[in-house]
């Protein structure tokens, strides 16, 4: 059928009501957002953002309401979609923006694709990877993997992807979203090593929309975290309190979930796998820890400083 591109959409969307089908690849995926309120009677008040791209550039796509439970888990990073009967809306200005792996990619930020059950009822098809043709010109998923030895030189809030062998995982903890609110964030601390430094990655992992992965992080698993943000305490000793925290678009993968993921082709991931083959499992097991209370960043040594 006659296809359109994201670039053409941006130029012609105001003058059209119906749009030609789109063929895009998912490059980023946000966590699922629940926006239900007692006074609003919505059956399935969910929303999820995706960043999708074709040969012309990248645009946001929003999945609404009852389409979320139906499609959210099937739309993975790297999935190719054929979209028909979608709506185009002006972009929501306050949403978070993931950092693209390819810095050259053009971003269409003024509009977004809206997928709904009605007005119009969107038709979504997933194209299996083996049927994707090179002449479609869809971009590959690119990553920004760093090693632990590179972390100390990175600025605050820098976006990166990491892979490591888990040596510590803490219990799940809760923090209030707002001071007197009823809602909580669920998170846990983890340490992962990659052989490039004596220090581990210190990871603050908030529960994403992947409970099956979040609950099963344990020592000796290979952990991949994408779209992590660098947090450094710029006040005192910057190197002592550097850690990584999840963002709205972070994805987490553990052993058993890596097969077929686009990052398996990345050079730094391959280097890490080579390093793990040189390690003795028994030696690493002795150094692993699980559970317990993990105060971080650590309080000062004496009470006056505190």
UniProtKB/TrEMBL annotation:
Q: Name one GO molecular function term.
A: single-stranded DNA binding
What is the name of this protein?
A: RADX protein
């Amino acid at each position: 059928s006659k296809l359109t591109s994201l670039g053409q959409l941006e130029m012609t969307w105001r003058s059209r009501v119906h749009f030609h089908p789109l063929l895009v690849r998912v490059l980023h995926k946000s966590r699922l957002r629940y926006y239900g309120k007692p006074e609003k009677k919505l059956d399935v008040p969910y929303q999820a953002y995706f960043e999708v791209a074709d040969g012309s550039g990248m645009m946001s796509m929003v999945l609404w309401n009852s389409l979320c439970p139906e499609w959210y888990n099937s739309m993975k990073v790297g999935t190719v979609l054929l979209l028909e009967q979608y709506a185009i809306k002006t972009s929501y200005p306050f949403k978070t923006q993931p950092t693209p792996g390819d810095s050259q990619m053009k971003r269409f930020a003024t509009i977004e694709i809206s997928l709904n059950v009605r007005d119009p009822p969107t038709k979504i098809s997933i194209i299996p990877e083996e049927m994707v043709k090179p002449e479609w010109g869809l971009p590959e998923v690119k990553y920004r993997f760093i090693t632990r030895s590179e972390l100390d030189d990175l600025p605050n809030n820098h976006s990166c992807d990491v892979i490591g062998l888990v040596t510590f995982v803490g219990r799940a903890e809760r923090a209030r979203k707002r001071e007197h609110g009823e809602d909580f964030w669920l998170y846990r601390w983890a340490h992962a090593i990659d052989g490039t430094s004596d220090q581990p990655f210190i990871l603050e992992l908030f529960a994403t929309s992947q409970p099956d992965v979040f609950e099963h992080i344990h020592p000796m698993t290979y952990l991949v975290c994408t779209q992590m943000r660098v947090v450094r305490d710029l006040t005192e000793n910057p190197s002592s309190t550097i850690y990584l925290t999840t963002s709205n678009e972070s994805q987490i993968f553990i052993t058993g979930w890596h097969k077929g993921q686009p990052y398996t082709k990345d050079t730094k991931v391959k280097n890490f796998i080579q390093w793990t083959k040189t390690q003795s499992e028994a030696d690493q097991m002795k150094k692993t820890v699980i559970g317990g209370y993990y105060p971080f960043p650590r309080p000062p040594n004496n009470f006056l400083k505190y």
